């Protein structure tokens, strides 16, 4: 994801702004990192450049 | 099974590209009607392989967000494009991870009815579209298309089967104006000769003709007041 | 010549039915998209023979007003139907003789661009449609359709030739949201074999194919916020 | 025209309500008559069941 996406992405639960924590990036993309809700503190992972903004209970790996 | 489990499995089996091929026959006609301008921001809801977002980005220069509940679908979609004005996100229809008034337009093909609560999905679209923004909602699974009624048997995610009136009513209840509704025929899916019937899917050739050439894809267009 | 003189002459020569036959090829697709409900009130602007109003009334049960600036057109149109829920009126696009918020939807085929002031006509439509009401504006005469550019030579009423952008801009300037815009191909007009060209109208077969199968009819759909 | 049309027709010039003067009618239709603007007094003819609500200067028979 580009950093410019921060303007429009919000916490799926309370729609508040998110803070970006970068783990790995290229010149124009964040590849690994976290989006943290400025209100509820929930953390959403960014993996292989794709932010996962599913509500936390839909994100967990369910038992097979 | 959850949306994530079901469609991660589809993506891993490569069914995303198969859907793209089949859905393009009618999706392209819906896409061609959208009043997208260069610089607009457009949402592709349940993006699958991401073809609709790629087409919108290619033809209009709009910025596209492809959202899907399946991480594997989003990963595949991302691998099919180099455009730096398309982003893919994993997220749920009923919990859109976007600010109010973010999008100029939204498109969805064969995905909307998987929402756990389609009324909530419409409310979320209404919230994230700007005034004058449109939601182009295309589905092959709907009440009038009797040939779709048994699809639920082979999909573990619960599907909502509204008829045309119910789509209009639900759009209005969510605060959309309904600007258009019609069925777009699929003129491209090849229909075998009479002698090939019954097939696995169709008892008669007439049934298959009706499924594709008559019912095709139901498109409902909502506009935010 | 005035609209009344020009089109009274057309009506007297029976050209209203000829237009009906030709325009139906694409008008029916535009009509099929309109979200008209039983009991709605719908305006057919520049009704000509009145076929579009008859189709809307037949298929939906809506009340229809067919308006035309030519008394002879309106007289002909009235003679073609017995429905007691269709009215014909003589009037001008720029001076609509209706109260505010009268119509649920409006349709117009191959007529809008004859308005003396198309911006005023849009303002009048905006005024007489209710919030959420749509204006389905279908034209064959538009800038991208290069094969229409010489039509003005044989018509004494001044015509406005906008391109697709200009239609969207003018709709927005009049207070409409633009919900859809595309060109509807005419797949039915018969195109003669290569050996028949040049014809009176087309230098080459390719030109005729482009005129009908590619450009067809431009449809712009506006929605009142 | 049906009398029910009176609910929606207005003077094309000032958009005010019209008054109906019937000359000839059937059970459910007005065939000949006049619509008179309650505000400006302009008269609009109804002929063969069709009201002519063109602005007055567009209605007149123009010289050939
Ligand atoms: N509740 C939900 N939230 C987000 N995505 C969902 C969803 N339910 C289903 N989907 C996604 O919607 C897609 C439906 S398949 C259709 C994909 C694509 N639009 C096409 O036309 O081919 C799948 O990729 C699935 O993962
Ligand atoms: N300014 C104006 N006001 C009212 N009617 C007008 C007009 N300019 C043109 N017209 C009418 O618009 C019609 C255009 S011809 C198209 C007729 C019909 N809709 C069809 O598709 O065949 C004519 O009947 C003409 O009389």
Automatic annotation (TrEMBL), chains A, D:
Source organism superkingdom: Archaea
InterPro entries registered for this protein in UniProt: Trm112-like (IPR005651)
A matching Pfam family: Trm112p
Name of this protein: Trm112p-like protein
Protein source organism: Halococcus morrhuae DSM 1307
Automatic annotation (TrEMBL), chains B, C:
Keywords: Methyltransferase, Transferase
A Pfam family annotated for this UniProt entry: Methyltransf_11
Entry-linked InterPro entries: Erg6_SMT_methyltransf, Methyltransf_11, SAM-dependent_MTases_sf
Leader sequence residues: none
Entry superkingdom: Archaea
Domain (Methyltransferase type) ranges: 43-137
Keyword Lipid metabolism: no
Coiled-coil features, chain-numbered ranges: none
Biological process (GO), any one: sterol biosynthetic process
GO MF term list: sterol 24-C-methyltransferase activity
Gene3D superfamilies: Vaccinia Virus protein VP39 (3.40.50.150)
Designated name of the protein: Class I SAM-dependent methyltransferase
């Amino acid at each position: 994801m580009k950093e410019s996406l921060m303007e429009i992405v919000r916490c799926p639960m309370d729609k508040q702004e998110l803070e970006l924590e970068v783990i790995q990036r290229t010149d124009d993309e964040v590849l690994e990192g976290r989006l943290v809700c400025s209100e509820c503190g929930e953390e959403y992972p960014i993996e292989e450049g794709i932010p996962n903004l599913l509500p936390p209970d839909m994100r967990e790996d369910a038992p097979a | 099974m959850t949306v994530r489990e079901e469609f991660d499995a589809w993506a891993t089996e490569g069914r995303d590209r198969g859907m793209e091929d089949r859905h393009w026959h009618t999706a392209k006609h819906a896409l061609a009607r959208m009043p997208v301008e260069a610089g607009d921001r457009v949402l592709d809801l349940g993006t699958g392989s991401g073809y609709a977002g790629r087409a919108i980005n290619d033809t209009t220069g709009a910025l596209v967000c492809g959202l899907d509940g399946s991480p594997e679908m989003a990963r595949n979609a991302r691998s099919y494009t180099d455009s730096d004005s398309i982003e893919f996100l994993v997220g749920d229809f009923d919990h859109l991870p976007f600010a109010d008034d973010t999008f100029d337009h939204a498109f969805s093909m064969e995905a909307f009815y998987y929402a756990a609560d389609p009324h909530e999905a419409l409310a979320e679209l209404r919230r994230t579209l700007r005034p004058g923004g449109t939601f182009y909602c295309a589905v092959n699974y709907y009440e009038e298309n009797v040939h779709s009624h048994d699809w639920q048997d082979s999909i573990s995610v619960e599907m909502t089967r509204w008829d045309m009136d119910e789509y209009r009513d639900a759009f209005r209840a969510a605060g959309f104006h309904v600007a258009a509704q019609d069925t777009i025929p699929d003129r491209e899916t090849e229909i075998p000769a009479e002698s090939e019937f019954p097939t696995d899917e169709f008892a008669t050739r007439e049934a298959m003709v009706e499924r594709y050439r008559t019912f095709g894809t139901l498109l409902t267009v909502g506009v935010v007041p």
